[in-house]
Amino acid sequence: MPQRLSYGDQYLRIQLLESDNPSTFAPGDTINGNVIRSANFYSPRATITIRLTGRAKVKRDFDKSPVYRSRYTLLDLSQTLFHGPLTISQPRSWPFGFTLPTCPSPGLVRKSQSFPKSLLPLSPDTIASHPLPFSFKYHDSEGLLTFVEYFLTAKLHIQQDLKKNLFRSAAALSAAAILPITVSPAPHGELVDQNPKLHSITASACSHSLLPGMNHTPLSLKQNVKKFFQCSSVPHLAFDVKLAIRQTIQLDLDAKDPVSIMVGIVPVGRNAAFLNGTLCQQGHFTWPSFKLRRLRLCITHNFDTYNTRRYYRLDWELKLEVGRERVWLQGRQSVTFVGPCGFTLPSDHCTTKGV
Question: Which InterPro entries does its entry note (predicted)?
Fold first, then answer.
């Protein structure tokens, strides 16, 4: 189930009209081009057709597990560009144009259903409301391969009883050309609401090191034993750690702060669970200077197709040191990536971000 690769020769090839990015289109765009024949040969009856096909495929081949395959045809449009005699003359070309639909074909999707459980509803009205999936490919070392692809196929059809006598080259008998195209996601409006999710975790530290002047003093054996058993005579410091992490992130090459994490620490002064400990003086926070390194991540938009679901999860970990006592906090949340504002981003674009 490999993806289609670009192919063309002297007998038939596909050429798109010149533009800034001739092989990338958004739903609703028109794909214009020409099917070109360069070789000189003659046929009294021939037909040249071109077809636009879109499909979503998945193959899962894990060790000691049955091979799972799934395929959905998203669209299949065809045009007849020529029907008649081909003469020995100068190279000829036939123009074509396809308007890329904004949704999959309900009939094709329902007909090509290859697994009882689809990730999306398959009623005709629901399929017509689904956006056309953009081009996508993912594979890993564990045997999972999934992709959404679109490609043009041009073919030269010859009447059966004329093939043997009228062609001097065997290549002309199966003249065909393939040209993959990229369907990019539709541009997204400016993201006004960052939709942060608030995490609130109560943490505490228990040690004699919390006392003023004891920060750099080694603890005695007796103090360590009391600390281990968390005796009531050992000072306790309780605090709430609050984190605000964005749930929706907009892909933008010029973004200086793509993933912002806001951290706040609030002392717990009225929590009955910690009132039995020794109260300490009000402390202060010293934030060490740090620099987030830049990573090259291949990130696309969140999307759902009939056999593929692309989503992201952010795992975070926070380490705090309070009076030589270390506190580890961790959590996770789902994150949604949306397209950049005002222009489309290729689906296979690798963006470099600070994380």
Answer: Arrestin-like_C (IPR014752)
Q: Give the 3-state secondary structure of residue 107.
A: helix
Dump strand ranges (E) for the chain: 13-16, 24-25, 30-37, 43-60, 68-86, 92-99, 136-139, 144-158, 176-183, 196-206, 236-246, 248-250, 261-267, 294-298, 303-304, 309-310, 312-322, 325-338, 350-354
Q: Rounded distance, CA 77 to CA 53, Å?
A: 7
> Looking at this protein, which amino acid is placed at residue 42?
Y
How far apart are alpha carbons 121 and 290 in whole angstroms? 47
Alpha carbon distances (Å) from 27 to 63, 110, 114, 177, 223: 38, 21, 25, 23, 69
Predicted structure pTM score: 0.74
Residues in the chain with pLDDT values less than 50:
162-163, 166-167, 169-172, 253-254, 271, 274, 278, 345-355
| Cα–Cα distance for residue pair 134/28, rounded to 1 Å | 12
Measured CA to CA in angstroms, residue 308 lies from 55, 57, 106, 272 at distances of 12, 8, 17, 49
Where in the chain are the domains?
Answer: 13-183, 196-354
CA 252, CA 346: separation in Å to the nearest integer? 12
pLDDT for the residue 321: 80
pLDDT tens profile 244-299: 988 888 776 445 556 678 888 887 755 455 455 545 555 555 665 555 555 555 67
Rounded to whole angstroms, the Cα distance separating 137 from 114 reads 20
Contact predicate 189/49, CB 8 Å: no
| Residue that is written with structure tokens 């879109």 in the block | 54
- Residue 348 carries which side chain, given as an amino acid letter? D
Q: Residue 145: phi, psi to the nearest 5?
A: -135, 125
Class level of CATH domain 13-183: mainly beta
